[in-house]
Structure formats: C-alpha cells, structure tokens
Automatic annotation (TrEMBL):
It comes from Medicago truncatula (Barrel medic). This is Putative NADPH:quinone reductase. Its EC number is 1.6.5.5. One of its GO terms (molecular function) is quinone reductase (NADPH) activity. Residues 16-327 form the Enoyl reductase (ER) domain. It is an enzyme of class 1 (oxidoreductase).
Length: 329
C-alpha cells in the first residue's frame, strides 16, 4: 500500500475544538517491526483525545503537528510487520494506537501487536472499539489498584463508582459486579435506570444532596472508589471511606496528586491513588472474551461517520455522553 492515500482527520495546532479538525488525505502508514496495519471499521473517542488538543498534556503530547487523534481502533488486519506472530492478514482485531504517533481517526492505522486483541467474527468492531482505553482503565482500577477478583472470590468490598454512565464508568459497574462487591454508583437522573440494569446495587443522582456528598443510601462506607468524575475534593471522599478506604482517580489533577503525596507523608490508612493506564494485549483479550460470553457490553451513545467527526468530537467535549461515542468507517 506504499504511496497510496487514505482519508484522515487531523489538527495542525493546539485549541479550536471541533473547528480545529481538518479533513485531509495522507499516505497509508506501513507497519514496522511488531506492528499490524489495520483497515478501520470503527474508532472511539476518549476525553484524553480532546485534552491533548487543549494542550493539557503539553509538553508531552502531541509530539508534533499535524496530529491525527484517537487511539481506540478496530477492524481488519491488512498487513503485518516483521516479528508479528499472533495475527495474520484478514484477522479481525481491536487495538490501541500509540498516542505518541497518533493516527486513530483515519481509514488505516498501525498498532503494536502487544496492545492488540482478536475479535470473534460474531462480534462487531463497534462493540469492542471502546475497550482499549475505557475498558482497560476500568479493569486496571478494579483488579490492580483495588484488588477485586473477577471470579467472585475474595473478601466482599463496598465500591463507589462515580460518573457510572460514562465510558469508563459503565464498564467499571459491569466488571465490579463480576467480583464479590456491593456497588454504589452516581450518574445523572436520566441514566439511573441504565446504570441499575448494568448491575449497580444503589444508584444516586449526582445532583441530589446525597449525590453531592457521595453518601451511600444504605449508609455503607466505601472500601474503594473508582473516581471517573471531576470536581470532588478529598474532603468529600474521606468521611465516606472505610478505615483502609482507597480512591482510585482515573484522571488525576495536580490537586489530587498533592493529596496522594500528603496521604503518603502522613501515613494515612485512607488513600487517594492516581491511575496510570498500562495497556496489555492479554487484558484487552480478556475484555473481548467477556463481551463474547455476554458478561460485558458496550453502551453506544452515538455513531458518526468519519465525514462528521467534528460532531462526535463536540459531543465528547460536551461531557454528557452515555457510554461510548463511536466513529464508523
């Protein structure tokens, strides 16, 4: 496919939101060692993507302009690089594009074999494409940071999940209920029934008094919190935690990092722990297998063609999506 062009969406500078996106034709990338070239059937946007555009990850990302955003991709393998062993041309896969190279919002993308998983033929790309960032974040928070065993064994834990109808939150509710947990979840009033159907034991409207205070309706103290929302200071979490309670912050700010340091310095048994996603192909495959088994599902808020990428970008920035926003090709 050398010298052939593909359609893509990129931005050439920081800022601008959806109006900063430009539709272009660029060369189809070639897979390097240990990479696969995927013809995309679907891509997914995460808040991380537009935060990079807003210069919130400067000076690390993007490495240069122009930059093609989005990291969640799924589709068909068209070519494999040297050293690739698990995949071959024609395989259906889902993977995570490196944010340092970018390239997910395009007709073709290259992905490392180590962060790619197979998709069974009976499952669509759109059902799996939300997993690489949001699904893996939820999985890592619950199993690695909190220590929940998804086979239902282990000590019972009371868990709070904030913004439970969002991308990470809706996966976190479902995964937590595979473990030995009691799940309290917060979301907007319009999504409360959806979150209940996902398995949450208690659902709180975040705008009500107990929602603002994050209190469990049954009076439970939380052994752990998967914090997917923003604007909650440590002082709100602290009185609601059990003796060794832990808050896992999936989008840590400078304020939460300071709280993390202070809880360490003061030897507090209650902790705020920032989460840094470490994606692994075997974890991604685990999530795809759960979808195949009917134990996990992706709620799709809306779908957009590449030609209307700006609309999906704006909807994500607006911050009220239920589940995932998907681009289909």
């Amino acid at each position: 496919m050398e010298n052939k062009l593909m359609r893509a969406v990129q931005y050439n500078a920081y800022g601008g939101g959806s109006t900063g996106l430009k539709h272009v034709e660029v060369p189809i990338p070639s897979p390097s060692k240990d990479e696969v070239l995927i013809k995309l059937e679907a891509a997914s946007i995460n808040p991380f993507d537009w935060k990079v555009q807003k210069r919130m990850l400067w000076p690390f990302l993007p490495p240069k302009f122009p930059y093609i955003p989005c990291t969640d991709v799924a589709g068909e393998v068209m070519m494999v690089g040297k050293g690739v062993k698990k995949f071959k041309t024609g395989d259906k896969v889902v993977g995570l594009v490196s944010p340092f190279s970018g390239g997910g919002l395009a007709e073709f993308a290259v992905v490392k074999e180590s962060v790619t998983a197979s998709i069974p033929q009976e499952i669509s790309a759109s059902e799996c494409v939300g997993l690489p960032v949001a699904g893996l974040t939820a999985l890592q928070a619950l199993t690695k940071s909190i220590g929940i065993k998804l086979d239902g064994s282990g000590e019972r834990k009371n868990i709070l999940i904030t913004a439970a109808s969002g991308g990470v939150g809706h996966y976190a509710v479902q995964l937590a209920k595979l473990g030995n947990t009691h799940v309290t979840a917060t979301c907007g009033a319009r999504n409360m029934e959806i979150v209940k159907k996902l398995g949450a034991d208690e659902v709180i409207d975040y705008k009500t008094p107990i929602g603002v205070e994050l209190k469990s309706p049954s009076g439970k103290k939380y052994d752990a919190v998967v914090h997917c929302a923003s604007d909650f200071p440590w002082s709100v979490f602290e009185p609601n935690l059990s003796t060794n309670g832990k808050v896992v912050d999936i989008t840590p700010s400078s304020a939460s990092m300071l709280t993390f340091a202070l809880t360490k310095i003061t030897f507090s048994k209650k902790q705020l722990v920032p989460l840094l996603l470490i994606p692994k192909g075997r974890d991604l495959q685990f999530l795809v297998d759960l979808i195949k088994q009917g134990k996990l599902k992706t709620i799709i808020d809306s779908k957009f063609p590449l030609a209307k990428a700006e609309d999906g970008w704006s909807k994500s920035i607006d911050g009220h999506a239920t589940g995932k926003i998907i681009f289909e090709f």
